[in-house]
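User: Continuing from earlier, I have the next pair ready.

Assistant: Great, send them over.

User: Here they are, in order.

Assistant: Folding the first of the pair now:
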Amino acid sequence: MPNATPTCDIGFIGAGVMGKNLMLNLADNGYKVAAFDLDNDKLEALLAQDSLERGDQPPRITACSSYTELLSRLSAPHLIILSVPAGKPVDDVCHKLIDAGIQADDIVVDTGNSLWTDTVAREKAYEGQCIFFSTAVSGGEVGARFGPSLMPSGDPYAWTRIKPVWEAIAAKVDPETGKPIESFEPGKPVTKGEPCAAYIGPGGSGHYVKMVHNGIEYADMQMICETYQVMRDLLDMSPHDIAQVFQQWNQGVLNSYLIDISAQVLATSDPDSGQPLVDIILDKAGQKGTGLWTAVSSLQLGSPAPSIAEAVYARAISSLKTERVKASTILAGPDKPRLTPEQKADTVQALHDALYCAKICVYAQGFHLMKTAADEHGWSLNFSEIARIWRAGCIIRAIFLQSINDAYQRNDALTNLLLDPFFSKQVSIYQQNWRKAVAKATESGIPVAALSSALSYYDAYRTAVLPANLLQGQRDFFGAHMFERTDQARGKKFHVEWNQPGRPIVKMN
């Protein structure tokens, strides 16, 4: 139907889980959507859901049978949103849209989990054919449906056209309390509050920020899991008991989406066997790559993010299920200590404090990485605003993010979150229990790689003199890599003639 009368505001390609829910969200907010998907069953499911939700109101979504029809349904200049798998599918769709007749001032928005460097390349590749723009989306299917956190980046002009759309569908936060304003009723979107959508910067920066968001998410999830395992294996607590602890923690400084859903998972029983559901879920974790990308980027930029890396490694070692089962019958561990009820209660409190302090360090790692990337690529990232748009809609949403927002409001040039007065005081207050929890787990043979790596990060960051002096001596000994001296100006290099009598020190520049 190439000559169809333009009746829609937005074109949307991809009616999978995220795409379907984003389209329904757009429709709730008054936008008429022209939809296309190669899978007609997905389009039919979308239309059926729209019909169910709108009742006797006119259709809000129009299904299209081709890219050409989709363009014909839209008024120029076109705004087309993609929700397709990252990688080659994004380019395939762009090429088909170009063949169908999109113009240089049409905007194509990628909302998938694309690698940020791919986004930079696409912006250049499609220049003059369309305006390629990107928006990273966090919040899963529920967030997409009722309000996600959105991290757009790219052409500033494109942002002026997209801004009202994204601010309409984004999650909202009460500006007074910093808490989410939520509605999960179709057709009744939240229209008040601060939207969790903000322009991040040049092309690729939004997907980079989302990548780091996911890296923090990996670490946060892993630390919660480690806390669960200590309670389970050392304290002999049932999943139901641990769920109650998490529910209690969710009322305080650890309040977050991830703590909430962890409690819900642990409180759920398998309907067939009656066993705790968590006990029949295979302990073999999957991953889609964003945590790995974050760890790799931290290594490339030299910005330490050990807890994020350990969370990636934890998923990798979980995949070695067969090997681990065999190793459990061969490799010895320590005897399990016997704890009194009072000691168990103390350990639960220590775990709470450990999780809180480690969480601070993980965010410190993530924000330091974003700052390093911004310096490297010439981005002007607003870290207060990034924390602000993560307060609702996204997977790592937490009350904790208001404190991060406040920290960067106090000092937008903050080098590291740990140096903020609020956070430095918090870790100072709770660090002893953090140490106790990590020590108790280690003594008991329970792996807590993320919790302990966060502690090591904190201790390394606060240490004025690290053993890297010996390391530099080693490197100079076997490889003549040279070193700087503490009693000389920075930048001056020296080398020891290690094989000469008296080992004379030679100034190299």
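And the other member of the pair:
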Amino acid sequence: LLGAIRHKGFIPWDDDIDVCMPRKDYEKLIKIFPDKLKNKYVLKSIERRNFMSPFAKIIDIRTIIDLKYVENKFENSLWIDIFPVDGLPSNKNEVKKIYMKVNFYRKLLILNSSKFKIRKGMLLRQIFKVFVILIAKLINAKAIVKKIESIALSNKYDKSEYVGAVTWGLYGIGERMKKSEFEKVIYVDFEGYKFPVFSCWDSYLRGLYNDYMKLPPIEKRKTHDMKAYYIGDDDA
């Protein structure tokens, strides 16, 4: 969304696409997506037992990736992330509490899949991080994911005035939108095509980034630290 509005396409230093949809549509997609679409694409989710996160991915099996700091047997191809949008309370303090809880379990899940890798500089800090990663790996990842999902589902989408991406909502209360505005669709330009976005895109981006048209400093223009390779079709 930010790339579409600010750059009319990909953010130059970014390397993935995120898609969101109401929880009921998200669950339907997981049920109806074929095992292998056009011999190219596979949907991964905890429900399909081929991914261990509280959201889904559609991957391109013609590619392979090497993630520098992540050790996860489920993440091995280029992807599009798909996030469920769930109900949120009208009370802002209650919304903040939900995101605080999810943020704790999300960090725990990230540490659970982190590599034991010492970076240059701040040796003591790096050693402490390795120790924390070791503790996190002792916790069952599936249990963490289920806890995140239970928090996200605590407010029913259909009965809520406000909604937002909860399971992987990195920006807390900034993710919160009026359901009526979220469900109203407009189209924006992205890499020469038109794609649907929610009508409240301006207030949403301001909630996440404030002045979203201003470019971040160079040191914050980060990618996923990965290498990607095209390996071709299975029958090639």
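Worth noting for the second one:
The chain has one domain: 2-230. The mean pLDDT is 88.
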